[in-house]
Amino acid sequence: MRNIFRIMMIGLFGIGTASGQITKVDQEVYGMDCAPCAYGLERGLKKMDGLQEVRVSLNDGKAYMGLAAENGLKLRSIQEEVKKNGFSAKKAEVTLIGNATKEDGQWYIETANERFSVSQDTPTALLQKLTVGTASISGTVQDEEDDNLSGQWSIVLTKIE
Amino acid sequence: MINKVFPKISLNIPYLKLILLLAISGSAMAQGHGPLYGLQTPTLAKGGVDLNVAGMSLSTETETSYMLRYLFSYGITEDLQINLTTPTMIERLGDAPRTRGNSNMPANGDIEASLWYRFFSNAFGVGKRFESTAIVGVSAPTDDVRGQANVGNSVHAAISTGYASRTWYGWIGGGYQYYFEKGGEQLGDLPYASAVVGYRPNIFMGDYPKPDWRIFIESLAEFPGDNKFEGQMDFTDSRSTKILVGPSFLGLYGAWGISFGAMFPVVQDLTLGAVKERYRLAINLSYWL
User: Fold this and answer.
1) Residues 181-240 of B with CB under 8 A from A
2) Which among B126, B171, B250 is the top mutation candidate for probing chain A, defined by the most A β-carbons within 10 Å of its own β-carbon?
3) Could you tell me the domains of chain A?
4) Which terminal Cβ of chain B has fewer Cβ within 10 Å, N or C?
């Protein structure tokens, strides 16, 4: 229901622009082995504007984040915070609302400040549900090399609202 | 030996209580989340601060030293860390063996500043990583004479590499400390190596923020050179060999850590005048800001 409301709001005020935002991130973290590591990462993430809730799991090797209703947070910023703590940011499961576009047969979903290229690994059934305009989607963002944080991501869609 | 810098304080019960109070209430802590004695590799997060307070004791056949040591560490980047450690000597040894306390704390009364550079890191799985770290440091003594020789400033360099996971840990490393001549006398140098294996039992695999514990078996091999005196024959090739082994324990809870352990000599092939040891004890409290 909340997502429907968000889509309506974006539809009213944001169609045709690159507005939109990430609303949830489960970030995989490699190399984090101890409580102070998790504490440091959790504290660093909590300092970021736009993060509403943060939970770090050593056993899962993940940081679970819920983002505020209005936020300008980039996935890149989250991964940079992971790196700043001495770990490697790997795959991320994200939920976001963005503007879907199609260029030369390639689908893209854009938030206010990042662009997600829809991977060909996305199931065909899901790709067929994708339409130009506002989209609320979930998916897995592929691992980028730590030193190659370009701000453009490849995403395998797992759900379209 | 007369303490020329700090007043000698007898170790009594009220003082022990004070130490404990400092340890519990202070904003300082331990050595990080690795072993207590051996060389390790982890560095702080960029902008991270780690405060430590440690209690150390070293016992020879004739006397026992007690020392409190404070360590401040700051992460310049996630791979570059600066450290400063200062001692409060409670009881000095008249005849002190040449050794280090641990990877960033001297066992004697030196003030030491050091730089850690993690030049290799490969995080390849959940909780798993290989990494290597280089250490360089400079020290200034807080005593004038140690082991009948004038104490000069010193430099220290070491390198370590290791593996960490949620269950197993291992580090190996080696280092070298060189004391400069002072007043025609020079403390012997100290090449050394360390190897550490660590394990976290299943019962301590609770997820963050639950506390977890790990146990280490630590070993040190030290090859201290003899002191040199002006006009004396050159004993450059004369070195002692010491191998010490012992357990240490590390408990972590949130931003807090406590580690404690002991080392016992299993080999002491000493040159004339070198000091025979009985044991080393240490306890260390850490707080990550």
Assistant:
1) 205, 207-209, 211-212
2) B126
3) 2-160 (3.30.70.100)
4) C
Residues of chain A with C-beta less than 8 angstroms from the C-beta of B43: 86
What are the tens digits of pLDDT across the range A53-110? 999 999 999 999 999 988 889 999 999 999 999 999 999 999 999 999 999 999 999 9
C-beta separation of B28 from B52 below 8 A = yes
> Is B265 near chain A, with CB under 8 Å?
no
Q: Where are the domains of chain B?
A: 13-288
Contact status, residue B138 vs residue B154, Cβ threshold 8 Å: yes
User: Which CATH architecture does the domain made up of B13-288 adopt?
Assistant: Beta Barrel (2.40)
Write the single-letter amino acid at B145.
V
- A72/chain B closest Cα distance in angstroms: 23
